[in-house]
Structure formats: C-alpha cells, structure tokens
Amino acid sequence: MIKMVLIGTGNVANHLYKAFEATKDVSIIQVFGRSNKSLKSFSKNTETCSSISELKDADVYIIAISDDAITSFTQKLPFKNRLVVHTSGTVAMNVLSEKNRKGVFYPLQTFTKDREISFSQIPICIESEEASDLQILHNIGKAISKKVVEINSEERKKLHVSAVIVNNFVNHLYYIGSDLLEKNNLSFDLLKPLIFETALKLESHEPKEAQTGPAKRNDKKTIENHLNQLNNNAFKELYIQLTKSIIDSHGEKL
Ligand SMILES: NC(=O)c1ccc[n+]([C@@H]2O[C@H](COP(=O)([O-])OP(=O)(O)OC[C@H]3O[C@@H](n4cnc5c(N)ncnc54)[C@H](OP(=O)(O)O)[C@@H]3O)[C@@H](O)[C@H]2O)c1
User: Fold this and answer.
1) CB neighbour list of residue 79: distance below 8 Å, 6 or more residues apart
2) What is the pLDDT of residues 4-52, one digit of tens each?
3) Of the candidates 54, 106, 104, 46, the residue with the CA atom closest to the CA atom of residue 77
4) What letters, b where the CB count within 10 A reaches 16 and e where it falls short, cover 211-233?
5) Measuring from atom 18 of ligand 1, which residue has the nearest CA?
6) Does 88 lie in the same domain as 41?
7) What is the number of structural domains in the chain?
8) Helix ranges restricted to H, the chain
9) Which residue, among 42, 203, 30, 12, has the nearest Cα to 117 in the 3D structure?
10) Which of 6, 77, 144, 215 is the most exposed, fewest CB within 10 Å of its CB?
11) Are residues 202 and 236 in the same domain?
12) 13 C-alpha vs ligand 1 centroid, how far in Å?
C-alpha cells in the first residue's frame, strides 16, 4: 500500500482524493490545506492539517496547489529526500525544491469541484528525477487510470499549450456563440448536439480532416454576412483571424 499525503484542497485535490479513496493500492493518510473551512470535506474520513510542521511521513506528497505557489511551498517542507510531485501542466519539474526527490503527476483533464469525473480514461502524465520514483508514480497512476504516460517537462509544456487551445479557447468560443444567441432570444441548447458531434467525430477523423464550414469552403459571401452580424469588435477580429487560419491551414488563399 502506497502512503500518500495530499497538499491542497482545490479542484484537483478534491478529484484526486475521491479517486484514490476508491482504490486499494493507495492510501491518503493526510490532507494539507491552509484553512479549516477548505479541509472540512476531507476531515470526515481522513486526517487533515494546516501546518506544514504536522505533515506525516509518506511515500509520496502530491502538491495540488496554484502554479505560482508550488516552488515556495516545496522550499518550506520540513523534511528531506522524500518523493514530492506537483500536478501542474505548465510548471517544470526542476523548480521543485532540491531538498526532496522531484516528480510530476499531471492529470490531463479539466477539473471543477462540483462535476463528477471518471479517472479511468484520463491520461496521467508522469515524470521523475529518479527511475525508481517513476515506478512509484506509474503504480499510483495505474491505481486510478488506464492511461499513464511518461512525459518530460518540455513535452508537458507543449501538451499544456495544446490543452489550453482545445479546452479553454474552444470553451470561450462557446461563450461567444451563446452570447450571440442570448442577445437574439435563442437557446444555447440548440447548439449542443452540434458541439457533441464535433467532439465525437474526433474518434474517427483527424481534426484537419473533420473541418467543415464557410472558411474551409472559402465561401466569401457567407463569411461577409457573418461578419456583419457580429457587433462586438473583439469577437469580429477573432472570427477574421480564425477564418484566415482555417483557410491558410487548408492551403487556399483569401
Ligand atoms: N483545474 C484543472 O482543471 C487542472 C487540471 C490539471 C492540473 N491542474 C493543476 O493542479 C494544480 C491545482 O489546480 P486547482 O485547479 O485544483 O486549483 P484551485 O482549485 O484554484 O485550488 C488551489 C489550491 O491551492 C491552494 N493554495 C494557493 N496558494 C497557496 C499557497 N501559497 N500555499 C498553500 N496552498 C496554496 C489553495 O488554498 P486556499 O483554498 O487556502 O486558497 C487551494 O487549495 C495547479 O498546479 C494546476 O495547474 C489543474
């Protein structure tokens, strides 16, 4: 049984906690959080603490706190030569304090506290300084997911940029679409089957191959008509740039 201490009480910590609680191979022996309020949901079944001097001995410490706080938090840890890993897609492994053995345990998914999520298909991207630690991280990952992959810090940075584009940017485009509909008293629900099919199509088609629409066809009149309907200049500029990018990517000229 691998003994784990979970640091953090936010979105990722909550999801990891639930996932590991359901496994036989990993035991969360303690959760660290800065406030008693945020620790409340963990304290029913698990020991909690809000002072780093109270941290227990464990095989691995998972630091699921804000990216900017990771380095300084690890510098304050009162022990040496233990396995300390963070969960960030963007923070390099080597910014962790030298005092302990470094690693990364990055679950590539979007996490929000109030949404149920199944870990079994979530890629867990692992990295470690020492080969024997990679095996520990692999075992921990396998306890909750079928997809554990070794990814180094440079690769993880690229992965994170892509993840932001396909998740955060695409979601922002949903917002722009929903705003236009709302202003015209139309329900965003009408678009949901289209959104779901666009995503599901990726099971069988590459993104480039799956592209459809006026930009791909270079239908200039339709594009012009759409631009006339967008009153918000920022949204209009995005439409122009995305249209240009699609046309450029599909090898045609504007
Ligand atoms: N959310 C995602 O979709 C996602 C996906 C994959 C990876 N990640 C990574 O997972 C990590 C946590 O993200 P999250 O979304 O769970 O964040 P979050 O919900 O915003 O929670 C942040 C946590 O960090 C704690 N914290 C902030 N500053 C701290 C400090 N100086 N010392 C100690 N604790 C501090 C917060 O404590 P308080 O409550 O006391 O402020 C809170 O528990 C980040 O590295 C993020 O990049 C996030």
Assistant:
1) 55, 57, 99, 100
2) 999 999 999 999 999 999 999 999 999 999 998 999 989 888 999 999 9
3) 54
4) eeebbbeeeeeebeeeeeebeee
5) 10
6) yes
7) 2
8) 11-21, 36-43, 70-75, 131-144, 153-163, 170-183, 192-200, 207-210, 214-217, 220-229, 233-249
9) 12
10) 77
11) yes
12) 8
Please tell me the residue having the least CA distance from ligand 1 atom 24. 65
- Mean pLDDT over 91-116 rounds to 94
**Which ligand 1 atom minimizes the distance to the CA of 112?**
1
Measure CA of the first residue to CA of the last residue in the chain; give whole Å. Answer: 61
Residue written as tokens 């706190």?
A: 65
Question: In CATH, what number is assigned to the domain containing residue 50?
Answer: 3.40.50.720
Task: Quote the CA–CA distance of 87 and 67 in Å, as a whole number.
Answer: 9
Per-residue pLDDT of 129-164, as tens digits, reads 999 999 999 999 999 999 999 999 999 999 999 999
Q: How large is the greatest C-alpha to C-alpha distance in the chain, in angstroms?
A: 67
Please tell me the pTM assigned to this model. 0.91
Ligand 1: residues within 6 Å at CB?
8-13, 33-35, 38, 64-67, 69, 73, 87-89, 106-107, 110-111
